[in-house]
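Lab notebook: predicted structure, single chain.

Context: the supervisor wants predicted structures on file for every construct in the current expression panel, including those that have not yet been purified. This is the next one on the list. No modifications to the sequence; it matches the entry in the shared construct table.
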Amino acid sequence: MSAYEPFAFGRALAASRLTTKAKITGHSLAVYADGKTGYCYPTQEQLAVASSQSVLTVTRALAELAEAGFVTVAKNERKRWNRNNQYWLRVPKEARALAGAIDERPPSEPEPQQLQTADPLPPPTVPDPVKAPPPTEKPPPSAPGAFPSVPAWRRD
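Prediction complete. Output recorded below exactly as produced.
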């Protein structure tokens, strides 16, 4: 397993015993992460919006993710307004077994069988535009100004 595999990260995060808020924040971080290296640079405000949480909750969840080993945070020491913290996503050694075991079935469970249909569905029928009946036209009113759909008592 390489340093960062997006699907293994998501499976390990889902199987972990982290709080739901930390899992949501971890998945929000994974959206911003580079698929090969696992590095990302979102602000905590961006993570708060992406995960529908407050900035304080995101800060606490990032600390929980870092403690569990899912995220390494390199803080920006310059504190310039356009510099964000750097996050490196990884699957901790303890969670690698969980990430691989989620999709596996026990050996005693048989392989699922594919659904077999007796005959395939027929293709949908589309009317031929050449043989389609011509559109019907409304006949003109019988007299100028006459409206056949309006009752006689309303015409006056």
